[in-house]
Design brief:
This protein is an all-alpha fold. The protein contains twelve helices and no strands. It folds into two domains: 102 residues, Helix-hairpin-Helix base-excision DNA repair enzymes (C-terminal) (Endonuclease Iii, domain 2, Orthogonal Bundle), CATH 1.10.1670.10; 100 residues, Endonuclease III, domain 1.
Length: 228
């Protein structure tokens, strides 16, 4: 399969979206918001996370919360009852084992409830500026579409992209491809006519332009960090 040129794709996405904001967001908020985002769309996750942070703004407050009250606040995110219990457990584990701080080590993050590779890497990228590859469905899908990887599962996409990308690209890949996947390279009805990398896309020859999209604002994690 033809492979889209990595450097040129990242240059085009940087022109469109600007430099990604990494290493500057609150670790606790990134961690909790990413847990809430599992199998849930951003337009549901963001208001739920906003309600949660308004009620329980720090680790100590969330650790003392009733999981049922948390579940009511975050409904209708997917598995809201289980996630309500999970984030309270996470807060307690942070207090008990990490002095209330979110650890900056991947293995320590992976030991927390409901924290898998994607969540751990999101925290490391967005909160600590570590060059990790956080793979969600958009990153997995688009990386395969561009011919960068040939994988069936996100778990296989992560190491394949780590081997392909340099450190700066690893830091940017989640933000760029998530925004690009939501806005333009959508699973259904991609807006190829507004695509900044259409000429480089291996799939572009088989697609007709389907409209022009508007540039979205910050990703969900960025909006939460901004308190908006």
């Amino acid at each position: 399969m033809t492979e889209a040129p990595v450097d040129e794709v990242f240059a085009a996405l940087e022109d469109r979206y600007g430099e990604p904001r990494t290493g500057s967001e609150d670790p606790f908020r990134v961690l909790v918001a990413t847990v809430l985002s599992h199998r849930t769309d951003d337009d549901v996750t963001f208001p739920a996370a906003d309600r949660l942070f308004d009620a329980y703004g720090d680790v100590q407050a969330l650790a003392e919360a009733d999981p049922e009250d948390v579940a009511e606040l975050i409904e209708p995110v997917g598995f809201y009852n289980r996630k309500g219990e999970a984030v309270v457990r996470v807060a307690n584990r942070l207090i008990e084992e990490h002095d209330g701080e979110v650890p900056a080590e991947r293995e320590a993050l992976l030991e927390l409830p409901w924290v898998g590779p994607k969540t751990a890497n999101c925290v490391l990228v967005y909160a600590f500026g570590e060059p990790m590859v956080a793979v969600d469905t958009h990153v997995h899908r688009i990386a395969n579409l561009l011919g960068w990887v040939d994988t069936d599962e996100p778990e296989a996409t992560e190491p394949a992209l780590e081997a392909l990308l340099d450190e700066a690209q690893r830091l940017a890949v989640n933000e760029y491809l998530v925004r690009f996947g939501r806005e333009i390279c959508r699973p259904r009805g991609p807006l190829c006519g507004d695509c900044p990398i259409e000429a480089m896309c291996p799939a572009s020859e088989d697609k007709e332009p389907e409209g022009v999209g508007e540039v979205e604002g910050r990703t969900m994690l960025g909006r939460i960090a901004d308190g908006r």
